[in-house]
Every structure is written in structure tokens, then in C-alpha cells.
Design goal:
Elements: H1 2-24, H2 28-40, H3 44-57, H4 64-77, H5 81-94, H6 101-115, H7 124-139, H8 146-174, H9 181-195, H10 202-218, H11 222-242, H12 249-264
Helix pairs in contact: 2-3, 3-4, 4-5, 5-6, 6-7, 7-8, 8-9, 8-10, 9-10, 10-11, 10-12, 11-12
Length: 266
Amino acid sequence: MKYIVVVVLGVFFLSCSQYQKLLKSTDYELKYKKAMEYYAAEDYIKATTLFQELISIYRGSDKAEILTYSYADALFGMKDYIMAEYYYSQLVKTYPASDYGEECQFQIAYCKYMMSPKARLDQTYTYESINDFQLFINLYPSSARVAEATRLMDVMRDKLVYKSYLNAKLYFNLGTYMGNNYLSAVIAAQNSLKEFPDTKYREELSFLILEAKYIQSVESIEEKQKDRLREAIDEYYSFINEYPQSKFLKKAEIIHQNSERLLENL
């Protein structure tokens, strides 16, 4: 075992020594060859270090295109999505007829997909990812990756809807704190349903509208209470017509019964 350890350490230090010599070398053809070998072996740290120098050395040559693509792809392999997206974009702009164009256009969107944060956070990358996937589909409608791009767009849209649901829920939870937040919850949820009518959160958003309208009616001043109770009742019928087997059915029935009772007593 000691012998094996010594051999392994010897190979490691020899490899490091050879790599340091390579970095100092002015033999750019050798650097290019070794960079491609490191890239193929998924040794992205060594590959990107070499690619970074070689891109400027071979700018304008027949090697520039593949170097840009390989550098972008290695950065992606290192999960440096910001710089990977930048170099994929550079390749598309610099070489519009490139054989790597389709792959790079997809990867531009995919980098932003990977940078899209949790729903509670800013969703700039989410919007950009959707737009870039749509651009990819428009540019390459026959691509084998159209289905994947469409699926990832749906994932991003669901995240946006979930964020809007969380926003509506936040208004709902604030209640009457510093204003009528139930009305804001209704508006936020309705806007989500208009923008994303097929969302998987449609039932949750629809029930939130019903519940917010009911509570708003209960807490209204007398002059507005009748109209708002009728609105809540109308919302109940709309809800059960769309979701007769809803997981919120019991709560919806209680809201309906209470609304009818309150209306009768006014």
C-alpha cells in the first residue's frame, strides 16, 4: 500500500510539474492539443486556463470557433453559468452560420434556466430563460431539442405562477394591515390566471380568490357588505363548477353557507 501511495503521489506531482511547464510554454499548438485533451477528459479547470489564453492567440483563425465553443462548454461543465452563457452568446454573434449555433442557442437559454432562483426571489433569469428558449424554438423549429425546450419553458412558467401565488398569499395573510390587502390578493391571483390560464396552481389561485372575497365581505362596512357577499357567492359557484371534486370543497361549502346566512340577516 505504501508503494502504491508513493507511485500515485509521484505521478501526481509529475503531472503538476508538466502542467506548470505547459502554462509557461510558447508552443501554442501543444497548448491547443493538451487543452482539447483536458476538455475531452472533463478536466475543466486545466482546460479553461489554457482556453482563456488560446482564444486571444487564435482570434480570427480557423481554430477560434471551436476554441470559443469548447471554452463555453467547459465553463458550463464547471457550473460557471454566467461566463458560459457569455461565451455561447459570443459564438452565436461572431459565427452566425456556425455548426455549433443550434447547440449554443439552446445552451444560452439553459444557462439562464440553471441560474433561475427559487420562486420567492427575483425572477429576471426565469423570464430571460423563457424568452431565449422561445427564440431557440423559432430559430430551430425542427430541432430534436424543441420538446425539451418546451418542457423547460413550462417549468419556468410554473415557477412564475407559483411566485405570483406566493405574492397573492402574502397579501391575503396581511389581511387589513395598512389597507385592504384582500382586494390586492384577489387582483394578484386574477392576473396570474389571466397570464397563465393552464397553470397547475389554477385551483389554489381560484380558491384564494374565493376565500379573499369572502373575508373581505365579512369585514366590509355595512354599505358594501351585501354586494361583496353576493360576489363571494358567485365566486363559490364558479369555483365548484370548475372543481366539483376540489380538495378545498369543504372549506368552499362553509364559505357558501356562511355567506348565504349573513346575506339573509342583512
